[in-house]
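Researcher: We're reviewing a set of sequences before deciding which ones to prioritize for further study. For each one, I'd like a predicted 3D structure that I can look through quickly. This is Bifunctional uridylyltransferase/uridylyl-removing enzyme. If possible, include the structure in token form so it fits the rest of the review sheet.
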Amino acid sequence: MSKIPLKLDELIDSAALRVELSALTGANGDGSSVAVRSKALQLLKERIASGRKVAEAMLMDDGGGIACAERLSHVMDEVIRCLYDFAVTHVYRAKNPSTAERMAIVAVGGYGRGTLAPGSDIDLLFLLPYKQTPWGEQIVEYMLYMLWDMGLKVGHATRNLEECLRLSREDITIRTAVLEARYLWGEQRLYDELILRFDREVVKDTGSEFVQAKLAERDVRHTKAGETRYLVEPNVKDGKGGLRDLQTLFWIAKYFYRVRTGRELIEKGVFTQTEYNQFLKADDFLWAVRCHMHFLTGKAEERLHFDIQRDIAERLGYTSQPGLSGVERFMKHYFLVAKDVGDLTRIFCAALEEEQAKHVPGFNRLIAGFSRRRRKLAGTSDFIVDNHRINIANDQVFEHDPVNMIRLFWFADKHGLEYHPDALKLLTRSLSLVDRNLRRNPEANRLFMDVLTSDRDPELNLRRMNEAGMLGRLIPDFGKIVAMMQFSMYHHYTVDEHLLQCIKVLSEIEHGDGEKIHPLSHSLMPGLKKQREVLYVTVLLHDIAKGRPEDHSEAGAKIARRICPHMGLSPADTETVAWLIENHLVMSMTAQTRDLNDRKTIGDFADIVQSVERLKLLLVLTVCDIRGVGPGVWNGWKGQLLRTLYYETELLLTGGFSDMTRAERAMAARARLSESLAAWPEKARKDYVKLHYDNYLLTVDLADQVRHADFIRNVDETGKRLATMVRTHEFEAVTEITVLAQDHPRLLSVIAGACAASGANIVDAQIFTTADGRALDTILISREFDRDEDERRRAERVGKLIEDVLSGKSWLPEIIAKRSKPKRGQKIFRIQSRAEVRNSLSNRFSVVEVEGLDRPGFLSEITGALSDLSLDIASAHITTFGEKVIDTFYVTDLTGQKIDNPTRMENIKARLVAKLDGAVEAEKAAAE
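Model: Here's the predicted structure for Bifunctional uridylyltransferase/uridylyl-removing enzyme, in token form for your review sheet.
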């Protein structure tokens, strides 16, 4: 299969190995002693190790994935042959062997194909003519224990001919293993008889059954490994578009078409020469990646985790280019190959189905309920309905009229049809017809807009269009982000997959499926019907400029202004799309990193948005963007932040904000709190209302103020100096922990450290001081349990740890070191530490924004550093994007004023960056 010279003689010298093994047995040739076995074992291990070392060096030199797999297989072949000869000649020699004392050693499964990765299992069949004999048992046992002691994972079976055939009929897995059988050593006539009888007695007339079983097996495997082939940590072996998919194609081909090599599929008309070359290139690339992974990790690692992606990219020679790092270029190539595997699967299935329909009577196995029913499709003579799937009427439909390449998807959407493999195969082979004329064709663009904005299932048809390569050809800028991966723990999918996921979310919101997740965006959609096209186009294009040197939001807006008119959008709608793309991150970042109780935050955001209509569109786009990132990224807290920002901004844009001064609003809030505590004794009520400063009264809801009042009163009555209170928020997916303690500069740092030690992720914090020198801090942590009772118990444990740390019962550094562990892969990311001090974001506070690599204790360290800098923290807002964290603190100096001295501002920035960089270096040193 490989065109690269294998240089097998350089890997292992089997003749020399036999001589060395024989020499171990001495003059009498007896190799049965423990001492000889030990020396033989060591010799064989050395040969495997040296052979693998040479194979790795060759892989680094020539890059041949299949060549490497064949070389490793050859090393194992020779070791097994030498081991067998040593066993039958020197350990258990049969003086007068009977006809039963014969066996063939057969490689099966993956090893049977003559390809191995460094960590692959060795699958062996010890094939016997009749029943097992004592001699046969001894040989098999000796070989297996030797192989296991070499550190190999060996899958094995000892069967006679009849057992092999019987079990192959009963078990598809065994049948597949025998299908891949390859003669290794021993009695070749036994192997030849097995292959002959297997073909005649098992394979013949059972092609449909085998195809159905293997495709079902593939679907189950995809479900386990992840349905999409665009997960950013793909499984190279079992994932969608991985090696096992190619192997499944070849199994089916060998079985159904009765071929022994892939090249014979060209003669059968299944693949063109170009497609078969594509098959080989995909196979070679995936094998290279898999072999590098095994060599690098020293184990059978099949998932391409973040922490090895960069190293694999370097091994394969990928370098950085403007806009894309070397690892991102490598992963884009990987996903393009995975897409090629999907294309080959579709082409193969089309040919297979046609072959079955021709030759298999009553064909109904491959597709449930299949019947060869064809009918005309209303409104066209170029397409037909073939068993509920849209198909081409003839092979010239696209050449005759290239607009048909889009009509295919339009008709499928209109009639709710799936796609016949023949249609997609011809489409893939006709992509060269997509040119500038088609892209500018008004009819083609109208049809595409219908598909994009369909009220049925736009994501499904856009996905089929993308998988066939059509979407990237129709919109060349989209083609540039197909299979593009962002090297980040935050992004779960490639860029194109993310955009399709966002379209899916938008469609769900429009259909009402998103009502429980984010009621506001759902309620706004009916009023945005006139803006549907704007929304769908924006969602499809908002990340279209990823991977470029310039800011992708600004570059994306330029692309939108260029292509939207061709898509049929008016100048006003085009400008709206461009504005939304340019600002698609603004609402998310404002909601998650700014204090939404600060009027300056709302005012600045309103100045950007300028109209309620834009606000509505931006909210829906933001919800789609966050939810489309991947599972677990969206949560109720982010939804709550977006709702708060929306409602506050809507008030300002519609003139609903009060014109009262801050002092007047504080006086009114104090009066409302006093009224709410009417049941209290008058003196206690007056004393309590004086306890809080204006910032607390203007920031905290009245209901929470009353709850805090009861909490503080109860604590005072018990004489405690320290207490915590817990409240769960199910819909927002956060849990609130309120801490009452004596105020001191490092209080938030200690609380944050206790939360880190408990594994609790802080998302927001409000810090208030009272007139009697105490602190009332409200901490919001991410919810962990579904049931309120479970979550409450967990939060109470966190609260108890906070109390223990603050009271001196527990020592924080020790707890953090013991209990907190960084997430897998986090250590390999490189985030440039950054700190900014800005006075333009709030009228009352300086805003300190810190960005760095997330790790346990990050928030505790930063808040401690801010305290050391004599800064008083009023609120903290914590946003995590995978491995990157952005923490924002609203601070004053100890006199309650902004930090406006330029020298001090620079000092704060330098001290914070030094703190971040020092902690990262210390963590690296500890890991090493």
